[in-house]
Design brief:
- By secondary structure, the chain is mainly beta.
- The chain is built from no helices and 7 strands.
- About 0% of the residues lie in helices and about 35% in strands.
- The strands form 3 sheets. The protein has a 3-stranded antiparallel sheet, with no helix packed on it. It has a two-stranded antiparallel ribbon with strand order 1-2.
- The protein is globular.
């Protein structure tokens, strides 16, 4: 459903669906990052997305974005706000 990525002291949450195909992005459950750890990478066709805003910077959906999910952090836990 969602991917949660912690980068330094920030948390980024997106729906686990590629804007190109709608398929999940993870290579293995919970593994979303490219080998260098700087970008989210789609396991289906290699599209790469910036962590900070979910914008695709490489691949067939370049310029499109992952769908951000509203969250709250309470007592160190991440909660989806609906």
């Amino acid at each position: 459903l969602y991917m949660v990525i912690r980068k330094r002291h920030k948390v980024f949450v997106y729906k686990n669906a590629c804007p190109h195909t709608g398929l999940p992005l993870d290579f293995k459950p919970g593994r979303f990052l490219a080998p260098d750890g700087d970008l989210i990478q789609c396991s289906n066709h290699g599209a790469k997305f910036r962590i900070k805003d979910g914008v695709c910077v490489f691949g067939p959906c370049e310029g499109d974005s992952l769908t951000a999910v509203a969250t709250e952090i309470r007592s160190g836990r991440v909660y989806v706000v609906e």
